[in-house]
Write a structure and sequence with these properties.
The structure is a single chain. The chain is an alpha+beta fold and 227 residues long. Helices cover 50% and strands 21% of the residues. It has 10 helices and 7 strands. β1 and β2 form a beta hairpin. The longest helix is centred in the middle third of the chain and has 18 residues. It is elongated and about 70 Å long. It comes from Paenibacillus yanchengensis.
Length: 227
């Protein structure tokens, strides 16, 4: 599978879907630095463009529209990648300040925001690749199709319960979990038992009666199954 061929197909697919300013932004914005990133880092790391959106439109803290270099959407998670060129971002103090504020705002909205130096891409793209491989490790292990859609091994409630257990020192108490997740207690118990059968939870027996009041999470805190 050739990078040039797949890159052109990916770019043309996004251009075809867009009109007006969104199309113009993609034509203008996907230049040298962005192409360097997708060829020397993204393609090597991922091997396809599923879920990656070039020149993706977002809003700043004042509700004004602007375009980030890349948005990677995997499951319910959003990653922003900005390729930072000193010439365009560092010399104008007002623009530099605005860029930083936009980054802070996106992080406050729940986006994962990652800035990458264009100079580093040119001089040592292997460093950028290594850092992104580390940052995205759990997300790279997720099974997705070519459109970036996650193929989940566990249902939504099961993933919620596993994440809840991690927040509470690996323990889930059905009554408390039901209140926190706004679910019926019987629903929580049902899914805890499913997780026991799948090897992710262990039922913790209490006292001589052996009654089950809580479940212990057995998986990794970095497991891609949590996403």
């Amino acid at each position: 599978m050739s990078f040039k061929v797949e890159h052109e197909k990916w770019l043309q697919a996004h251009l075809t879907k867009r009109q007006g300013e969104r199309k113009d932004a993609l034509r203008r914005g996907h230049g040298y630095g962005n192409r360097l990133f997708v060829e020397n880092v993204w393609w090597v790391l991922i091997g396809h463009f599923g879920g990656l959106h070039p020149e993706y439109e977002v809003r700043d803290s004042r509700g004004r529209s602007y375009f980030v270099d890349f948005m990677w959407i995997v499951g319910g998670y959003y990653f922003v990648f900005e390729i930072m060129d000193y010439g365009s971002h560092g010399r104008d103090r007002t623009k530099f300040r605005m860029d930083l504020n936009r980054g802070l705002f996106l992080q406050a909205q729940g986006f994962h925001y990652i800035e990458i130096s264009l100079d580093e891409l040119k001089e040592d793209s292997s460093f950028v690749l290594a850092m992104l491989r580390s940052i995205l490790a759990s997300y790279l292990a997720i099974s997705t199709n070519q459109n970036g859609i996650v193929l989940h091994k566990f249902g939504k409630i099961e993933r919620q319960l596993m994440r809840l257990a991690i927040r509470h020192h690996r323990v889930v108490r059905p009554a408390k979990a039901a209140r926190e997740l706004e679910l019926h207690k019987d629903t929580v118990i049902k899914h805890c038992r499913i997780l026991v059968n799948k090897g992710k939870f262990r039922a913790v027996a209490t006292g001589t009666t052996g009654k089950i009041y809580q479940y212990e999470y057995l998986g990794s805190t970095q497991s891609p199954d949590l996403i």
